[in-house]
């Protein structure tokens, strides 16, 4: 097998906030490769450095030592090749759904007609075409987050960074959005790094689950999710799913008990 260049590479990445006696190691010596088109979920106890790791890929936080590479290029700041989706929908309330999706395209100087076309394409992909002219306040939480996903996709990043994107939603909506995300991904395969506190969610959507440990934040274990795609209810209820979920659960919670 040939060595394929990873899409995202953490090379001995450490992050220390502050200095002197107040210095705090949020992440210690993280080495991890994420392949092109792969979905990797990141779980771990509160404060283990999940958001720090993601912000480093996004270019929002610098590394203290080591290096983070995207497409073999050292990350120096944010860029259009990486789209970020946070828990808060961050839609502009004064713009319609389609104008929200078009926003990044407008910043890129893309002409009106192409903007419309691309925005509609991604709204269709997330099942929101009928709501193109609606304002965010008229949408449910799940629809808002689908709109945020369409907006992130529209500017065509090759990497999607998602920090607890479904964290504020009820359990049923979450499950639906997980299916929706996988459906969108299957039609248009981007590399996804997805942070969650929900172990079931972490297993259901991922090729691999990265478990971080806290104090200091570091890699604890990487668990392969050897379940077939497309994922569906049958997969979710299978004994294989339960087995992997239990494995992730143990990796996360044995450690948090130790750290507490
Ligand atoms: N700008 C900062 N200055 C100082 N400390 C910080 C800063 N950002 C994060 N930290 C600390 O670094 C540690 C890791 O934070 P991070 O947000 O990455 O953890 P997390 O795993 O995403 O946590 P959670 O699950 O609670 O969101 C935490 O203890 C946090 O308080």
UniProtKB/TrEMBL annotation:
Pfam families: ABC_tran. CDD domains: ABC_NrtD_SsuB_transporters. Residues 8-235 form the ABC transporter domain. The keyword ATP-binding applies. SMART domains: AAA. GO terms for molecular function: ATP binding; ATP hydrolysis activity. Gene3D superfamilies: P-loop containing nucleotide triphosphate hydrolases. Keywords: ATP-binding, Nucleotide-binding, Transport. Belongs to the ABC transporter superfamily. This is ATP-binding protein.
